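Escalated from tier 1: pyroglutamic acid holo job.
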Amino acid sequence: MTKTLLITYFGPFPGVSVNPSGVTARQVADVLADESAVQVVTREIPVSYAGSSEALREMLTDIRPDAVLSLGVAVGRDKVSFEKVAINLDSADIEDNDGVVRVDEAIAPEGREAYFSTLPVRASYERLRGVGLPVEISYTAGTYVCNHVFYEAHRILERQGRRIPAGFVHIPATQVDHEPSDAQTTFTAHTDAGGVESESVPTLPEAVVARIVAELVRDTLKVM
Ligand code: PCA
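Tier 2 regenerated the structure:
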């Protein structure tokens, strides 16, 4: 039976003029196009606290996927991060794309404090690290819209009574190989958004990032 996998990604937000998660989502869908076990559906989610919750609710209801993988960029990280935990907190210096700033606000006042990823984070990390790929397990997805989406996906699925694999992957800034070299992409790291501030921004080739995410999908299919 073919499983439907929803991959979500984001567009630009303050400090990131082109969000590499969109290219990654498309490339992962391409890499997996010949796999009969999975059909990949990709959708953009707005970089907005309120808008992302709304968009997710609609997608999860309309598409009814068998698994959900959300992607976002964490500028300054040098490995693909399999996020372990989503926390019930919105708190960032930067605005979301609706101009909203949230400081120390619960995502869901009556909700759980945290959810763990239900992707096979540890097993996939061990396997991919074993073949020399740049992966890590991360214990914070930040407190901006990426963590918000990670948390909300779990909360919505729980309320819908659906136990399906769901989780979040932060990707580093990527080396863009499909644009002219004079194309200017700005990357500014924000710690709230999972970033790491440093002099220079490490990057990984797009194809390496897509391969890692596709392998995580393959490992997820094994546990479904
Ligand atoms: N990264 C941000 C939001 C969108 C994205 O790609 C974050 O890590 O919160």
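The radius of gyration is 16 Å.
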